[in-house]
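Hi R.,

Here's the input for the adenosine-5-diphosphoribose complex you asked about:
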Amino acid sequence: MRPEIPPSLIEEVRAARALVVLTGAGVSKESGIPTFRDALVGLWAKFDPEELATPEAFERDPAMVARWYDERRVKVAECRPNPGHLALADLERRILGQGGRFTLLTQNVDRLHQAAGSRRVVELHGALRVWRCSRCGEEREESGGPFAEYPPRCGCGGARRPGVVWFGEVLPRRAVDEAEAAVRDCDLFLSIGTSALVHPAAGLLHEARGRGASTAEINPERTPASDLVDWRVEGQSGEVLPDLVARAFPDPPPVENGPGRRTHPGRQVPP
Ligand code: APR
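And here is the predicted structure with adenosine-5-diphosphoribose in place:
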């Protein structure tokens, strides 16, 4: 059965002037990306996330931690955006097309939102494919196969580490500032596919709500946010989001005619 989407939520999405979306691991589930815990199988089954995802773990055993993240990086590179990612990219175009603002805050490190075409994406927990030298700080994007050595080395000789936020680390300052600025003046906040447990990302919904924004959650399971939001849609994001966007914006999407020129199919463009 198709998940029920309240008509008032559809209306709110259509009318949004400043929309903030927060996504978590659930949004990538339908792309086949295992959550951190789900990925601890086979050789890795004996580890706790805390043994792999902390600065102390990397200090203790940089080769092992780098190998774990590199395996994940290579696996994730084979995954494709699902209809939920694509609907969010479409939603951004629709909101921008009517002169509104749109910010996508993600806790995911897989870059699937960008692969789907989302433009304004704030990565709160970094990205798997960015590796940073633990000595000189140089960052590089990796798109090839597995590294030849673990940990990979920087030109300066330092060990390179994955550019993700580990337990106990602070979030990137710039991402937090951008997230807070977007939340400060949004009129609608959607929390999608996140357990809404991990702070500070989880606190953003409280902040938006405290400032008077409407709030909604899309998740097949209940979370600590479920009792706070104005609307809850119980379903998978890959199913709910395409339906929500299609019903909020039933017209065909604007056609992009190169930089700065957007038209609707069949509509006359002034020179
Ligand atoms: N559509 C939407 N939501 C889904 C789907 C789906 N198809 N499948 C599962 N979910 C929901 C689950 O019900 C759960 O509430 O996605 C949520 C995933 O929760 P977590 O695995 O805790 O992921 P997340 O909230 O992103 O975790 C935050 O914690 O492990 C750290 O740094 C890691 O970024 C991660 C952070």
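One thing worth noting: The radius of gyration is 20 Å.

Cheers,
M.
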